[in-house]
Amino acid sequence: MAEIAPGKVYFIGAGPGDPELITIKGEKRIAAAGLILYAGSLVPKEILRAARSNAEIHDTVRMPLDRQIDLMANAAWEGKAVARVHTGDPSIFGAIHEQMRGLRARNVAFEVVPGVSSVFAAAAALNLEFTLPELTQTLILTRVSGRTRVPEKERLRDLARHRASLAIFLSASLLPQVVSELAEAGYAADTAVAVVYRASWPDQIAVRATLGTIEAEAGRAGLTNQSLIIVSPGLDKQPAPTVSHLYGAYQDRERTRSGHAIFAMTEPAIAFARRLLNELPNAALFVPETLIKDDSDAEKMIAIRNGVRDALQNEFLRAESLICIMASGIVVRSIAPLLTNKHRDPAVIVSDPQGKFIVSLLGGHEGGANALAQRIARFSGGQAVVTTASDNRNIPALDVLAQDHRWTIHPQSDLAAVMAALVNETPATLLHDPDLEPPDALRTIGWETVRPLSESDRDLKTPAVIFTYRAFGSLRIENMKRIAVIRPRILCVGVGCNRGTAAAEILDAISEVFNDEKLSFESIREIASIEAKADEKGLIELARSRDWKIRFFNRTEIESVSNLIQPSAAALKALGVSGVAEPSALLSAQSRKLRVRKRKFANVTVAVAVYQEKS
Question: In which region does residue 580 sit, left (phi positive, over 0), alpha (psi from -120 to 50) or beta (all else)?
Answer without folding.
Answer: alpha
